[in-house]
């Protein structure tokens, strides 16, 4: 029988992970290739080429990328022009006029400069009121003049349009977009209401600006990717992960590139949610450690936390994304001394030049260099032996840059790198657990990414988490999660009405319109009617509050049942509920198109009792604070039923799991590694 192969590719800041899943045999194959910042598509082709010469037999291809995110963080997006209402060109500077909590007592704080300079912003006459009624007719000649100024005189190739109250009536935005696209067909045009139909002009302006900023970058990349994959024989549609889970076609990603801005980490969260449901894990924390960052997300009852408002590098955006906490500290993060204090990240050595041990020109020690010094990584087995590693150079860099300035030994300096990294990570996890009245000790930790299995058991010890779960092929788990995705898209509109039975009846036509949009999108993506699902949700708040909570709306709901669920969720989140009246802020519809996906396969229980080590080497044991012999095992030799006690190291080429003296490891029925505290028989 012919095998059905599914491909998924995840681009990180350091490596590209490609995974091939054989639906017939359940075999997972992984290949990693260095990220190629100068030509991102080339890194994808290198990773895919390590698994298959041709893609003619591939049934599905899903891709996640942080290319848009990196363009924002590194200020490498397009030069953007903004067209808004007359008198509102300074909205980006005015913003909310507040100081971020992290800089509350910093009297020298200055907000980041806007992505778009003032000379690239212009206003045109025209106005809608908050109910969507036209107050002043749109001046179409002024729109044409604004286009001439920004495109012909300023030489801009990407435009963003955001008008006041367009969430209530987008007619002016749509008309302006038609005028500009007709006059300048080669110029990219983004409108705020194509991305979000929600109130808050500043946040909506920032959102559409970010979309316009990355649109040319993503369009060029997706075009190059589709061309190269088609040349390799791919006949199935290319799908791109969304930041809030699910996937969409490449064509839809071109129309809404901002929806992909956190698509890489989203794949891991989707995979973690899948495992939580399949293995009935009611409380799980995903812990994704790559080359440049640590990404964490809380998953309860198989559902990840989600938000509809976030920020990237200080710029707000109104899109649905997973509630992921990111720490700028991964395997490639640079360790450095700041006024006598050791710090780790947020700067990363990235793929170029990479850690000192790579021998590619890096001079600043990284977390990877510290792991080599502490004996956690085998230089000869790094990336299955495909990359030459200079452990001596790593040790020399740790000594010169960290140990000597701090007045400690090389081992102490390297161990301190991990202590600082763990302290930063614990802080991020507390934000999404303890600060939300959740006890992290009640959760299991799912550790993945290239460095997740190394750091996961350390973090579990630090936070009192009983079980750390290491999935199969952890280095490519985010890519594996992409194979678990359905097609998804979300539509929303602001209503700002009291929560009452009369309001629920009155918003029915608005819900119907959103559902129609969802049906159209799923239809264009080739989803059969029987595989479509539309989910309604309300954003509800107490009257007078600023922020809201999302409440699912099911058939037969009344205002009283919705308010009851809102009160329960508010009490669970904030520790109290109030007797105040409720208010509906936003209507949302999530359109889901079901896709075939691989299941979780149990493996034969061939292992019994202890496993046979492949050797041993000295490494630093955080349980004892000393360098001690660690037994080394090859993961391929471990089968369901095997157990082993720390201190031990499990190697699998692209990832390394470290178990300390007070921990033990068990292989479960799916071939996953369970690391638990306690080392008694």
UniProtKB/TrEMBL annotation:
Residues 6-182 form the Hydantoinase/oxoprolinase N-terminal domain. One of its GO terms (biological process) is glutathione metabolic process. Pfam families: Hydant_A_C, Hydant_A_N, Hydantoinase_A. One of its GO terms (molecular function) is 5-oxoprolinase (ATP-hydrolyzing) activity. It comes from the Bacteria. One of its GO terms (cellular component) is cytosol. Residues 505-670 form the Acetophenone carboxylase-like C-terminal domain. Residues 600-619 are annotated as: Disordered. Residues 204-490 form the Hydantoinase A/oxoprolinase domain. This is 5-oxoprolinase. It comes from Acrocarpospora pleiomorpha.
